[in-house]
Design the sequence.
């Protein structure tokens, strides 16, 4: 086959992943030092052409990954991101299916909390106990998307049906809409294929009564129709903390139909149920800084945390030819999150219960028109889109009646269990949030060295919240109320990529985002946690949206025959008009648009093949945060809460023989202060730094049969991942555990 002479320019990554394209791999290799420090000029280079067997990529492989580089993603799944990751002017971390499976982690929160720049939060101030992510120090619990559409509700999430996880850093409202101050998370599901049939069965057993069974089956019904079914059942004790544990079951049923050469229809239904017995039985003493264990907490027989999800998504894509494509996606979803979490309260010297239930309804529709055309002698890739979203949240609490009376002594494990009954209350709040959005983006290739990305987005929202009468502290009563207002805001994104080198570039970007008053749907009227805030006169509609701006300067290098991507970036995110919680965050009374804070830092990343046998996914974040303005002068100069100034993760895999591979992961986080979001951490509540090591090994007995072994937290490190703002709840990281997973492919 003849060699092809090309210059490695940005490619059009908007091709249909359902069809296996011919894949090319370069044979050039430049050392990192030469590529980064030398003044290489673009030249024409001979590349060998590699054909995948039958011109197809295996149907059960990740269509977005770099061939033969299991830890490197070549592009994202979002068709609006029209260039490869290496040519996108923004920090992006993409976790491939292989890196997720090797890690042995099955919960999305465990995977994300190990990534640099991401920390976890607890359920605080009325927001739900669930997967709460904080990216670069900013709330991102509502900035979770699946296949490009916002996910309804705050629930626990499993990885059984995921192809990859895409983390974009910095404000990117052009893509994500409201929020996304620190970044956004997009999970990519496994799609049905029309290429071939397969059936993968996995069975796992391990310590702590760990059991996990998954199925991944694809069936080609006809040449134009394929269906895929992923199923999960798992249960396990929390390592060294039984009877605390979890049980999960779910499935994803997806189908794809191609009625014509240029039209593809897709649909999927996601079902998930999680039933956990929680154990947050750890608290921090604010006076001594010590963390104490309470054996009765979280194991009383009343505590639980349940998640439910029923989500249907339908999509259609048509290729008109000549660089014009139309894409439409619709999602209808319902989620339920309910919990009772008991903890020791230092304020009352006794047991305190955190209870809640939420039912979330979501309807979303997104339409994208993509044009890849030559205009005025330049290549333009234009994305024009409109989006509609309707979110509804009913929320309430549980009343707990104890059947025994007892006195709880601080730091004692000799107390009776909390026994009794629970009853679910009627809804105490009802929220409906409608958003209509329009956006326009263009990526212009000016010449071989310069490319410019620009985008704008306008969001208009309608906000309606009804709250029931509720009792407050000291016998006070907060009357029932209704809140309704609407507003609109514009955001933009601008990036410039300069790439005079064959495999590297430097870029600069500017982006913005907006958060509305009450924009965190799970928080209701709990001001200071993303819920609705009013000023001292009870005004709420006078609050302006919070505004964030990000500046970033970075470089990206495709090395080792494009099997490895190295990235580095410095950034500064400034959040203005911060709506603060006021003196009492438990009621809807705060200070409107009085705050300002900033996060700046450096992020480094490496993903792909260091050598043909050694793969790596490495990331480091070094950051600093500061409160610049506040209604409370004591907050000024303080760092952000739930924020680790230094964090890093390194996962390495070595393919020792064609059949045997082994590797490990190291995760580090510096100290984390507790406190309210955006309020400035006082430093009274502090979690210590930690380093955790994991190991894994795989053996391929045959093309059909393989075995993987994982040991999590090899040194049995005692570490803590999140803390409630007052210290009464501390999340303990999992103790050492081990499991074996057998995989058979038919």
Sequence:
């Amino acid at each position: 086959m003849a060699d092809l002479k090309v210059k490695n320019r940005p490619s059009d990554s908007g091709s249909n992943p359902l069809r296996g394209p011919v894949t090319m791999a370069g044979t050039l290799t430049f050392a990192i030092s030469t590529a980064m420090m030398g003044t290489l000029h673009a030249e024409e280079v001979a590349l060998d052409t590699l054909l995948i067997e039958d011109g197809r990529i295996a149907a059960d492989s990740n269509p977005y990954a770099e061939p033969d580089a299991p830890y490197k993603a070549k592009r994202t799944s979002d068709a609006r991101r029209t260039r490869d990751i290496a040519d996108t002017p923004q920090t992006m971390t993409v976790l491939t299916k292989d890196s997720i499976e090797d890690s042995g982690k099955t919960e999305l929160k465990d995977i994300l909390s190990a990534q640099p720049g991401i920390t976890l939060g607890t359920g605080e101030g009325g927001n739900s106990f669930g997967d709460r992510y904080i990216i670069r120090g900013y709330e991102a619990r509502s900035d979770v998307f699946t296949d490009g559409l916002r996910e309804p509700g705050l629930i626990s999430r499993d990885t059984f049906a995921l192809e990859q996880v895409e983390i974009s850093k910095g404000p990117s409202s052009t893509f994500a809409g409201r929020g996304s101050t620190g970044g956004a998370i997009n999970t990519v599901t496994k799609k049905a294929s029309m290429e071939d049939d397969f059936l993968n069965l996995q069975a796992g057993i391990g310590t702590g009564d760990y059991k996990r069974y998954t199925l991944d089956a694809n069936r080609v019904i006809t040449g134009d129709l394929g269906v895929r079914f992923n199923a999960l059942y798992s249960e396990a004790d929390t390592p060294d903390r039984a009877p605390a544990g979890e049980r999960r079951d779910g499935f994803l049923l997806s189908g794809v139909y191609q009625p014509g050469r240029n039209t593809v229809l897709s649909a999927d239904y996601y079902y998930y149920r999680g039933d956990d017995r929680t154990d947050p039985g750890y608290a921090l003493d604010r006076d001594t800084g010590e963390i104490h264990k309470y054996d009765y907490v979280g194991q009383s027989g009343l505590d639980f945390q349940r998640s439910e999800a029923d989500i249907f998504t339908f999509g259609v894509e048509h290729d008109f030819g000549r660089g014009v494509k139309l894409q439409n996606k619709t999602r209808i979803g319902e989620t339920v999150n309910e919990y009772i979490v008991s903890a020791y309260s230092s304020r009352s010297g006794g047991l305190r219960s955190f209870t809640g239930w939420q039912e979330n309804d979501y309807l979303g529709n997104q339409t994208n028109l993509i044009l890849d055309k030559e205009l005025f002698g330049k290549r333009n890739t234009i994305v024009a889109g409109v989006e509609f979203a309707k979110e509804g949240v009913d929320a309430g609490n549980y009343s707990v009646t104890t059947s025994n009376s007892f006195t709880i002594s601080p730091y004692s494990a000799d107390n009776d269990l909390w026994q009794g009954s629970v009853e679910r209350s009627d809804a105490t709040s009802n929220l409906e949030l409608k958003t209509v959005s329009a956006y326009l983006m263009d990526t212009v290739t000016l010449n071989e060295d310069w490319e410019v990305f620009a985008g704008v987005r306008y969001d208009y929202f309608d906000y309606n919240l009804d709250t029931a009468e509720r009792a407050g502290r000291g016998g006070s009563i907060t009357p029932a109320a209704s809140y309704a207002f609407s507003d609109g805001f514009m955001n933009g994104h601008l990036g410039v990529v300069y790439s005079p080198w064959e495999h590297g570039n430097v870029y600069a970007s500017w982006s913005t985002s907006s958060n509305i008053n009450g924009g965190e749907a799970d928080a209701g009227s709990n001001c200071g946690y993303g819920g609705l805030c009013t000023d001292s006169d009870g005004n709420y509609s006078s609050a302006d949206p919070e505004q964030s701006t990000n500046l970033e300067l970075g470089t990206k290098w495709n090395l080792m025959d494009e099997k490895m991507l190295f990235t580095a970036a410095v950034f500064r995110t400034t959040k203005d008009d911060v709506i603060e919680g006021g003196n009492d965050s438990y009621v809807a009374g705060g200070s409107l648009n009085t705050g300002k804070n900033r996060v700046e830092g450096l992020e480094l990343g490496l993903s792909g093949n260091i050598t043909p046998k050694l793969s790596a996914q490495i990331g480091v974040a070094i950051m600093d945060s500061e409160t610049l303005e506040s209604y409370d002068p004591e907050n000024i100069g303080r760092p952000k809460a739930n924020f680790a100034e230094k964090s890093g993760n390194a996962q390495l895999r070595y393919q020792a023989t064609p059949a045997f591979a082994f590797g490990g992961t190291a995760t580090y986080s510096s100290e984390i202060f507790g406190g309210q979001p955006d309020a400035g951490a006082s430093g009274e509540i502090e979690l210590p730094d930690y380093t955790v090591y994991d190991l894994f090994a795989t053996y391929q007995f045959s093309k059909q049969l393989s075995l993987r072994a994982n040991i999590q937290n090899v040194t049995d490190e005692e570490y803590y991942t999140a803390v409630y703002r007052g210290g009464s709840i501390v999340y303990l990281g999992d103790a050492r555990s081990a499991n074996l997973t057998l995989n058979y492919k038919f």
